[in-house]
Amino acid sequence: MEKVFSALADGNRRRIIELLHQNDSSLLEMSKEFSISFQALSKHIKVLENAGIVKKEKMGKFRNLSLNRTPLKQSLKWISYYSNFWNESFDKLDEIINNQNINERSK
Fold it and tell me: For the segment 31-60, what is each residue's pLDDT rounded down to a tens digit?
């Protein structure tokens, strides 16, 4: 999961994921969406591949990119668990504070 979070830390890589979420793409087509060099884009793709988020298939002289949603879903599941934990903890704290305020007012 560390590789997934590390890959998501960069805005260009998040943009690549957004584009692939809409449609599979070739590396050449993808390069038209960015103002970075082809080499820099390739490096970002490689990071996403290493994290398991992007799959690259060679089709003739082109490389087709597709999104593998599984690592993203696993990360979201982890985030959701802790989000729920913190939300429940804050709700309990809020309840304690409200009860304490009510008790102080009734004195």
Answer: 999 999 999 999 999 999 999 999 999 888
Q: Answer whether 0.90 is exceeded by the pTM.
A: no
Q: Are 52 and 68 in contact, with CB atoms under 8 Å apart? A: yes
In terms of Cα–Cα distance, which of 46, 24, 44 is closest to 35?
A: 44
Query: Which CATH number among 1.10.10.10, 1.25.40.10, 3.30.479.10, 3.20.20.70 corresponds to the domain 2-68?
Result: 1.10.10.10
Nearest CA to 1 out of 70, 75, 67, 55 is that of 75
Torsion of CA 51, 8, 33, 57, to 10 degrees: 10
